[in-house]
Structures are given as C-alpha cells and as structure tokens.
Specification:
By secondary structure, the protein is mostly helical. The chain has helices at 8-52, 62-71. It is 70% helix and 0% strand.
Length: 79
C-alpha cells in the first residue's frame, strides 16, 4: 500500500510520532480539525473555479458595458 509515495512502514512511523507529540487526547481533535481544513480548502477551490468560468449570460462587448454602466447610474456628472 502506497499513499503519496510512502509505504506502510513510513505511515506507521509518522502516526507513532504524532501520537507521542500530541498525545492520545489531542490526536482526534487534530484529525477533525485537519479534515475540516481540507474540506474548506477543496470547497474554496471549487467555488473559485466556478467563478472563473465565463457565463454565457454576460456579454463582453464594449457597447453593452457602457449601457450597463449608464443603467447603474455611474455617470460621471457632478452632483
């Protein structure tokens, strides 16, 4: 069994060191926190990828951009 280029022996050694460093009480908390962090990172990456995709509803012509700007009331006349 190889995970990330590491064999079973390497994984057991890493887990044993983590158990010694963090202790048996804190290890489940650490695992939960790490899992939530990875989940949030993946969610953020998926959300970023969705925002980066161009929408077919949005137009890219300069004329349409000027019309939208005028509709929003962003004219540059002093008040």
């Amino acid at each position: 069994m190889h995970i990330g280029g590491m064999g079973t022996t390497e994984l057991v050694i890493i887990l044993a060191i983590a158990l010694l460093v963090f202790g048996p009480k804190n290890l489940p908390k650490l695992g939960t926190t790490l899992g939530k962090t990875v989940k949030n990172i993946r969610k953020g990456m998926d959300d970023g990828a969705k925002e980066a995709e161009p929408s077919s509803a949005q137009s890219s012509s300069p004329e349409d951009a000027e019309e939208k700007k005028a509709e929003d009331g962003d004219d540059e006349s002093p008040a």
